[in-house]
């Protein structure tokens, strides 16, 4: 039996933050991952005016959830994120529905262990979809109140919701990233602080899923100081 190709999927939306994407993708690419981009539209432009062509639609990617080991969810400024959380009718957007599907999908035949990495304010998407319920999470320090509001909204709308522990400070200062472990579907949930911390979290993912030595090697290659939580 041949080696299974390691695959990552990045979801993007209009006005996404390019560093939230390029940081983790650089780590994964140099860790021998194949990286694909999913979006609602054929072309999507970041807040920095970089345009990305999608590889796959959300509908198509939803049929291939077991193919991906990690889902990268970038953020943006809150006013760029909130329009993509819900439809006008109050239903969750296709993007949020896709994220929740990835977070709850189970495939007994797949050998892949799946992870969601939400970078910076990308944690908002997870919060609105209930993906953070019962877990701990972090985000950019300036977006902490908004994350608390989003998780509280999910509690208010969902009977039996457990809530989310929103964390800003650790024992040694601001949290770079927070690995909440695996949810009850077996999907690991990781959130990060600032934009640059997407690199730290991606290296953490590589250390867990491949090897610590590979994470050290990739960190050196891209000139980044390897951090632990």
TrEMBL record:
Q: Pfam families recorded for this chain? A: DJ-1_PfpI
Q: Which residues form the DJ-1/PfpI domain?
A: 6-170
Spell out the Gene3D superfamilies in the cross-references. 3.40.50.880
Q: Where are the transmembrane segments?
A: none
Q: Which InterPro entries match?
A: Class_I_gatase-like (IPR029062), DJ-1/PfpI (IPR002818), INH-QAR (IPR052158)
Task: Fetch the SUPFAM superfamilies from UniProt.
Answer: Class I glutamine amidotransferase-like (SSF52317)
Task: Specify the protein name.
Answer: DJ-1/PfpI domain-containing protein
Origin species, per record, is Penicillium vulpinum
- Upper taxonomic classification of the species? Eukaryota, Fungi, Dikarya, Ascomycota, Pezizomycotina
